[in-house]
Amino acid sequence: MISKKTPRQPEDSNSWTRWLGLGARFVAVITLSLLAGSWLDKRLGTGMPLLIWILPLCLIAVTLYQLVKETARRNNGNKDSGA
Known about the structure:
Layout: H1 15-44, H2 51-82
Helix pairs in contact: 1-2
Keywords: Membrane, Transmembrane, Transmembrane helix
Protein name: AtpZ/AtpI family protein
InterPro entries: ATPase_put (IPR032820)
């Protein structure tokens, strides 16, 4: 059986889309967590805006962890295929 390999695009051609996706992810996480925190603060009747601070900070930390994990995996894959 003959396998056809598609030509691989250079890494630089997709780098801007990766960064654009990262920026969109951060904007979405921050916006949705602020809205959810505000809604929860009103719903629970907290005296101060506690959840509007805690929820975005926690979700940003999770998003950064996922980013570092994904970047490390991609970098390890690039080193293995280049050698």
